[in-house]
């Protein structure tokens, strides 16, 4: 159990970092999504791993329960990372539509030095 | 329980959706609501500032007892930061309305209010996961403000900004997971309490968490080696947004002051030396990069962005000492550099709008050349740290606090040489912009404005456009004139900050010791 969770967090993180370092906006978005999955699983594990246990204290003296707080944290983290991914997709889409290129480091326009802020503001 | 503590978070949180949904097509109404909301927020901040004199005050959300529920904590430091934020926000908002920036894209005012909610919440919260949530709120609003009004270069810089901050947020979550698994709590006071009892030989995970948090905050504060996003972002953001972002880097600095003094303080065995070891050299390199960038910049906004980077380095070098004296100096410099950076960005925005482009090359002089030259001169003096403005006082205090024999050579030479380079950079930029330009004929045909500017190149700036810049510079003068009173307040702030027991007892109650 611990091995499966740890290795999946590791694999997801490694894949996420590899994809973030790619030069295309699309693979960077995928990489950040994988990284957020990794951190969600990781947060789950931070409350110790337990199987088949309720996240509430039992009134009948059975003291075994799973920590509910990481589950609440994971929910928050999922909501936030989902929203952030949506924003990132929109920004990347905007950058793609502006320049017809999804390179993360958009090639600078040849007349960059003559570019004015007035142009940028359009 | 003082319910006013949560009011500065709730007000923008309620106002933003109303502006976004109800007033989306009615710019005058949105402007009125946004400015009125910010003025009320400023009133609240002044009230909280006046009320924060004594012990830290705690607001228990939902009245849950302390380590189990989320708490907001109002102490002198958070009250000061909230006040600085709201004053800056009001200036920036007036500038954005007067120059018409808010009409060049959608939802400026709604995003602006959400941004304020995130910043104020980050300063007030006493729960480290809640700090993460407020970080995300201020970031998601800043993404929208950063790409406000669009444009190719701005979208490119905005994409980088979003990606780097999302990666930082993930690191933040990893750090919180590590911290929770090793201590079982996320309440800042409770963390501070429990970390004292962690024996050194079992502190490996805690040290990892402290270092991860430091990397995250260093990323927000644009500290080397995570500084590369700042010049690109600030140079390409709309002028008022860049001025508002002057407080964003300070959120990272505040988080380092708060977390690495209260939780991972220098005298806590488990994490001793984690922050001090790395912060000092990183701050030195940041100062150097900022100064070299100021010298090398060919665009006005980029030059200001690099000078902000240098000021963050100076701030961090003072923070890295983690002593009461240096922290007082750091807080003074923090307040000063926020308004100095904002005044520079605002005056640059006014100048660039009246000039064909922001490259530092010879162009015909702008209208009101003398006035803009004076404002730029004053703001640049503030930023570079020359007398008589508060940058000089701030840098003097920072240098005075860093007197240990092993650091004095590095710290003093870095700060002094960087100040000299910054002065040279600003002097060159100013003379190109304002002095040499008067020798160029008004050859409009030779330098045609490539695209019609929404403001109009030749239009002189009105009183409403000039007022925020002049007010920001007047604040620098006030910071100098009332430096004694401010430092007196900051001494109390620092004493409260280093009185960890006071904070813990205020949050957890007197029997929190058990």
UniProtKB/TrEMBL annotation, chain A:
Localization, UniProt? Cell membrane
Q: Which domain of life is it from?
A: Bacteria
The UniProt similarity line reads:
Belongs to the CPA3 antiporters (TC 2.A.63) subunit C family.
Q: Keywords in alphabetical order, please.
A: Cell membrane, Membrane, Transmembrane, Transmembrane helix
Q: How does it sit in the membrane?
A: Multi-pass membrane protein
Q: What name is this protein filed under?
A: Na+/H+ antiporter subunit C
According to the record, the segments passing through the membrane are: 6-23, 30-51, 71-97
Map out region (Disordered) in residue numbers. Answer: 102-122
From TrEMBL, chain B:
Per its UniProt record, what Pfam families does this chain match? Proton_antipo_M (PF00361)
How this chain sits in the membrane, per its record, is: Multi-pass membrane protein
The yes or no answer to whether the keyword Transmembrane is present is yes
Which UniProt keywords are given for this protein, alphabetically ordered? Cell membrane, Membrane, Transmembrane, Transmembrane helix
Localization in the cell: Cell membrane; Membrane
Where do the TM regions start and end?
Answer: 6-23, 35-53, 73-96, 108-125, 131-147, 159-183, 203-223, 235-257, 277-296, 303-319, 331-353, 365-387, 407-427, 469-490
UniProt superkingdom? Bacteria
The family database entries (InterPro entries) matched by this protein are listed as:
CPA3_Na-H_Antiporter_D (IPR050586), NADH_UbQ_OxRdtase (IPR003918), ND/Mrp_TM (IPR001750)
Q: Which family does it belong to?
A: Belongs to the CPA3 antiporters (TC 2.A.63) subunit D family.
Q: Which NCBIfam families match?
A: PRK12666.1 (NF009309)
Q: What does this protein do?
A: NDH-1 shuttles electrons from NADH, via FMN and iron-sulfur (Fe-S) centers, to quinones in the respiratory chain. The immediate electron acceptor for the enzyme in this species is believed to be ubiquinone. Couples the redox reaction to proton translocation (for every two electrons transferred, four hydrogen ions are translocated across the cytoplasmic membrane), and thus conserves the redox energy in a proton gradient.
Protein name per the record: Monovalent cation/H+ antiporter subunit D
Q: Which organism is it from?
A: Albidovulum marisflavi
């Amino acid at each position: 159990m611990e091995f499966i969770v740890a290795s999946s967090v590791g694999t997801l993180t490694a894949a996420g970092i590899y994809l973030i370092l790619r030069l295309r906006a699309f693979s960077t978005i995928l990489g950040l999504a994988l990284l957020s999955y990794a951190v969600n699983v990781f947060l789950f594990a931070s409350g110790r791993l337990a199987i088949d246990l309720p996240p509430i204290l039992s009134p009948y003296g059975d003291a075994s329960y799973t920590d509910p707080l990481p589950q609440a944290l994971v929910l928050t983290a999922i909501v936030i990372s989902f929203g952030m991914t949506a924003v990132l997709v929109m920004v990347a889409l905007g950058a793609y539509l502006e320049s017809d290129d999804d390179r993360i480091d958009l090639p600078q326009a040849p007349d960059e030095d003559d570019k004015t802020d007035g142009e940028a503001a359009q | 329980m003082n319910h006013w503590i949560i009011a500065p978070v709730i007000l923008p949180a309620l106002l933003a959706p109303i502006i976004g949904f109800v007033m989306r097509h009615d710019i005058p109404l949105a402007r009125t609501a946004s400015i009125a909301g910010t003025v009320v927020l400023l009133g609240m901040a002044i009230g909280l500032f006046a009320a924060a004199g004594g012990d830290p005050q705690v607001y228990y959300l939902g009245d849950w007892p302390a380590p189990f529920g989320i708490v907001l904590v109002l102490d002198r430091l958070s009250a000061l930061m909230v006040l600085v934020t709201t004053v800056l926000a009001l200036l920036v908002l007036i500038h954005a309305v007067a120059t018409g920036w808010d009409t060049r894209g959608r939802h400026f005012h709604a995003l602006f209010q959400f941004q304020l909610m995130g910043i104020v919440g980050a300063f007030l919260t006493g729960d480290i996961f809640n700090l993460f949530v407020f970080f995300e709120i201020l970031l998601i609003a800043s993404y929208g403000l950063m790409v406000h009004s669009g444009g190719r270069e701005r979208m490119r810089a905005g994409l980088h900004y979003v990606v780097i901050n999302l990666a930082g947020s993930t690191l933040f979550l990893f750090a919180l997971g590590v911290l929770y698994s090793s201590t079982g709590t996320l309440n800042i006071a409770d963390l501070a309490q429990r970390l004292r009892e962690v024996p050194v030989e079992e502190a490996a995970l805690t040290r990892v968490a402290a270092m991860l948090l430091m990397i995250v905050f260093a990323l927000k504060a644009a500290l080397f080696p995570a500084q590369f996003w700042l010049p690109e972002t600030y140079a390409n953001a709309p002028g008022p947004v860049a001025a508002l972002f002057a407080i964003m880097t300070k959120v990272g600095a505040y988080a380092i002051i708060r977390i690495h003094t209260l939780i991972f303080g220098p005298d806590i065995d488990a994490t001793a030396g984690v922050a001090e070891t790395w912060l000092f050299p990183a701050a030195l390199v940041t100062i150097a990069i900022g100064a070299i960038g100021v010298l090398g910049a060919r665009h006005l906004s980029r030059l200001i962005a690099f000078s902000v980077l240098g000021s963050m380095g100076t701030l961090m070098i003072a923070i890295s000492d983690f002593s009461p004296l240096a922290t007082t100096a750091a807080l003074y410099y923090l307040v000063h550099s926020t308004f100095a950076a904002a005044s520079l960005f605002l005056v640059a925005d006014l100048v660039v709008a009246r000039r064909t482009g922001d490259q530092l090359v010879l162009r015909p002089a702008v209208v009101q050349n003398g006035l803009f030259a004076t404002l730029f001169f004053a703001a640049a003096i503030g930023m570079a740290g020359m007398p008589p403005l508060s940058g000089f006082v701030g840098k003097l205090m920072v240098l005075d606090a860093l007197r240990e024999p092993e650091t004095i050579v590095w710290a003093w030479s870095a700060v002094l040489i960087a100040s000299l380079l910054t002065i040279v950079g600003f002097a060159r930029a100013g003379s190109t912009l304002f002095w040499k330009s008067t020798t160029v004929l008004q050859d409009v045909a030779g330098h045609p404005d490539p695209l019609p500017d929404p403001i109009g190149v030749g239009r002189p700036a009105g009183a409403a456009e000039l007022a925020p810049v002049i007010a920001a510079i007047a604040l620098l003068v006030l910071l100098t004139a009332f430096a004694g009173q401010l430092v007196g307040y900051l001494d109390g702030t620092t004493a409260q900050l280093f009185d960890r027991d006071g904070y813990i007892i205020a949050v957890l109650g007197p029997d929190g010791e058990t």
